[in-house]
């Protein structure tokens, strides 16, 4: 079956949603550290780490296998890149559903907004088979997400912020956040502005609004992360970076 088939992407997305759900249910039954007070959060973070690791590294691999995609982010599409974007779309569908089923949507509204934005943008790439390269650039952000998830797991696992493993991850985390989130989002914004004449109004609007939302969320969370790990000895509030 080729990329041109209209059922490949949606089928992979739905299958991915189901598989991530199965991974979540399986991991929820496994032993957890005694310090874990929220089994759902622990499991959700682990599943997110699996997704981030697969898609972040997968995006780099797709660009390595098809270098031409770095020159044209609109038209080129390969089977690996199409499958990867579809798989990621399925993950975000699973996570949104899990948030609502677990009645966590209101307390994690940032995640819901983030996921709906990603599903809309990635869904466009999956259905039209266009902008796959642009979606792959977005997926490199998951390399940063992996270290955020590791940070959460260390925190929930009771690892002290003074622990060398925690401190090392925090330093890498900040560097990856700047490189693969802030810089990547800035580059994507620059690209869509420069190429606005080559992008139809609907995808352009979808991408522009999506990038605006993502940039605001990520800049806000960056300062939260700095305050939590480097500027405040005793965090006084809970957020994405704590249990």
From TrEMBL:
Top-level taxon of the source organism: Eukaryota
Topology in the lipid bilayer: Multi-pass membrane protein
Main location (coarse class): membrane
GO CC terms: plasma membrane
A biological process term (GO) from this entry: plasma membrane organization
Keyword Membrane annotated: yes
Record flagged with keyword Amino-acid biosynthesis: no
Transmembrane regions listed in the UniProt entry: 6-28, 49-67, 79-97, 109-128, 174-194, 200-226
Chain ranges of the TLC domain: 37-231
Record-linked Pfam families: TRAM_LAG1_CLN8 (PF03798)
InterPro entries named among the record's database cross-references: TLC-dom (IPR006634), TLCD (IPR050846)
PROSITE patterns reported in the protein's UniProt record: TLC
Cellular localisation: Membrane
Key words, A-Z: Membrane, Transmembrane, Transmembrane helix
UniProt xrefs under PANTHER family: CT120 PROTEIN, TLC DOMAIN-CONTAINING PROTEIN
Name listed for the protein in its UniProt record: TLC domain-containing protein 2-like
Taxonomic source organism: Branchiostoma belcheri
Top-level taxonomy: Eukaryota, Metazoa, Chordata, Cephalochordata, Leptocardii
């Amino acid at each position: 079956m080729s990329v041109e088939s209209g059922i490949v992407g949606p089928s992979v997305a739905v299958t991915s949603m189901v598989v991530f759900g199965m991974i979540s249910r399986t991991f929820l039954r496994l032993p957890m550290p005694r310090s874990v007070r929220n089994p759902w959060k622990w499991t959700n973070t682990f599943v997110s780490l699996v997704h981030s690791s697969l898609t972040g590294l997968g995006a780099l691999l797709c660009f390595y296998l098809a270098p031409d995609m770095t020159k044209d982010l609109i038209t080129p599409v390969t089977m690996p890149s199409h499958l990867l974007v579809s798989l990621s779309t399925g993950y975000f569908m699973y996570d949104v559903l899990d948030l609502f089923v677990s009645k966590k949507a209101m307390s994690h509204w940032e995640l819901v907004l983030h996921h709906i934005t990603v599903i809309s943008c990635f869904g466009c790439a999956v259905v039209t088979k266009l902008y796959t390269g642009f979606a792959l650039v977005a997926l490199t952000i998951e390399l940063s997400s992996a270290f955020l998830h590791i940070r959460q797991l260390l925190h929930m696992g009771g690892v002290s912020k003074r622990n060398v493993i925690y401190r090392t991850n925090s330093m890498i985390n900040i560097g990856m956040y700047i490189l693969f989130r802030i810089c990547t989002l800035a580059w994507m914004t620059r690209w869509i502005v420069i190429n606005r004449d080559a992008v139809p109004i609907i995808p352009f609007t979808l991408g522009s609004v999506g990038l605006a939302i993502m940039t605001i969320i990520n800049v806000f969370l960056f300062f939260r992360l700095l305050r939590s790990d480097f500027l405040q000895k005793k965090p006084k509030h809970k957020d994405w970076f704590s249990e």
